[in-house]
User: Fold this.
Amino acid sequence: MSDSFPVSPIAMPDVMLLAAGLGTRMRPITFERPKALIEVAGKPLIDHAIDAALAEGCTRFVVNAHHKAEMIAAHFARLDGALPDLDFAVSHEKDRLLDTGGGLRKALPLMSSDPVLALNTDTFWLPGSDTPIARMQACFGANEADIVLLCVAPDKASGFRKGADYLMDADGRLSSAHGRPMVYAGAALISRELAATGPDVPFSLYRHFETAREAGRLWGVEIAAPWFHVGDRQALERTEQDIGALV
Assistant:
């Protein structure tokens, strides 16, 4: 298991898997295990995220760990042994949760790519059903972007219960002014420069999203495949049923 990666340009982004949270909406299941290791359709949530990234050629993975951190670390150690051609590293948040933005900033020395890809571990798409990471990279390279978000239309956001996060225009730029309503789908391609910023307190990735939006440098790619959000126990049951109907 790698301790750090030298900074160098690579074809696909390094992946930051966000898995440190307490999983309060999944209690009592998360009293015994971290949310990222809850099984859905026969495999842990975090493995669904890894498999989707692997299918597009990603090879370097970092996970942040706090709640039941020893279980997350043991799972990554098993993956490291089973998949020797890949790199796995753990960013421990021992003293306190740093939230998604703070967690990414702490883990940045363990990643080498620019941009980096932050993935929620309670959202995923099935491998081979789309190539959103490649399309996000193409969007990042073609525009003056600081961040490219994976997005999903509200009516296709399985397990999602709130309104749209942004509006997307015909070119893919995200704003609060005009375009089609879109929900953030749990994957964000972020420049290293922006990911390295932030206060010395826990903070959300949404701070970066808003910084990019206000600068006109926030873009989005709509996923072209079934997308799943496993935020609570009801969504867990529904996702099991939905995946069962697809395979």
Q: What stands out?
A: Confidence is low (pLDDT under 50) at residues 1-10. Helices lie at 29-32, 45-54, 69-82, 99-107, 132-142, 192-195, 206-214, 233-246.
